[in-house]
User: Fold these one by one.
Assistant:
Number 1:
Amino acid sequence: GNSVTQMEGPVTLSEEAFLTINCTYTATGYPSLFWYVQYPGEGLQLLLKATKADDKGSNKGFEATYRKETTSFHLEKGSVQVSDSAVYFCALSVGESNYQLIWGAGTKLIIKP
Amino acid sequence: DGGITQSPKYLFRKEGQNVTLSCEQNLNHDAMYWYRQDPGQGLRLIYYSQIVNDFQKGDIAEGYSVSREKKESFPLTVTSAQKNPTAFYLCASETSGSYNEQFFGPGTRLTVL
């Protein structure tokens, strides 16, 4: 079946550090991949997405590359800020007609000044 | 501005009572979703609706009910049959052909007293 595995949190970093949050997936067919972010007490926001292999999604300094050979979609940022503290969710969907997203468990990121 | 609204933000319920959570969107999206989020966990799908007057059970539908009488509205009722209803509830919507890019409301935190 389809599934998403994220690295467990919390991930604690100092400001300006390099960030990687790992996400791997198992899917039939050709999934689209997403990263969502949830700030404390709020709903989720789409951070970036990639719809085919080798695509790179990017937004707000965050990047993730769709790696079919390693079934991965790791989230990276070169220099994190305190305002990046949030929970990050990796998700996938299989097929445009499939209305369901498969979610990872989320990774809490804490950035210390 | 287009978006999704959920009300109320905080809701308290006595045991044995039914309660209805509101979700409204003015994005003209076809599909709408209800998720449950428990502390430190990912999202679990309760119900979803792809079109007016039609909806399907998600992974944890027991103890919940929904209706979709209008495109803009997808209310969720938490019934007394739901044994552990205290959680954060998130509503989302999505337009067809968007590769499952979902837009989320701010959430409702339900507490059973």
Number 2:
Amino acid sequence: DVKVTQSSRYLVKRTGEKVFLECVQDMDHENMFWYRQDPGLGLRLIYFSYDVKMKEKGDIPEGYSVSREKKERFSLILESASTNQTSMYLCASTDPYSKQPQHFGDGTRLSIL
Amino acid sequence: GDSVTQMEGPVTLSEEAFLTINCTYTATGYPSLFWYVQYPGEGLQLLLKATKADDKGSNKGFEATYRKETTSFHLEKGSVQVSDSAVYFCALSDHSGSEKLVFGKGTKLTVNP
């Protein structure tokens, strides 16, 4: 069965810290995505990657960066965390050639104090 | 750009009531349409999908029909259960190669016994 694993379910960090959120998929998918979910705003795309070392900005990339050194792992980096980055973060992956829907992890609820 | 508008909640129903959650979209080309569900404390799961006009997606008693003429993909269920309480997201995929998803803002459904 498809599996997307996010390293933490809950995370608490302080303003100004550099924060890493990790996501691993076991399906050999080409494409991986990071979204943030906020009440009343739905899910918004932060960054996505369509291959190792390849990345593209989504709708709200400011304050974030990403890293994809291996196909199965896609990391979201908050360079200098701020309180307005407190949110639920969801990772997803898909195989673009099979036209299958995206598979999501369980999410990381991040609080920046 | 592409967008999805869905009925805002929250929606509260009694068990065995009929459910409709409206979803309309704006897109260039011919997107695929999805309904995802998020149960409390979990990530998103695909509920159903439709890839072309007049397709009907169905799963777990839920149905939605891809209506190109009205650009709609309304979610329906004839008799809801307490276990259907969740947040429901309508989404489209633009098939641009990245398979990015554009989400609606989500509708929270609560079903009371």
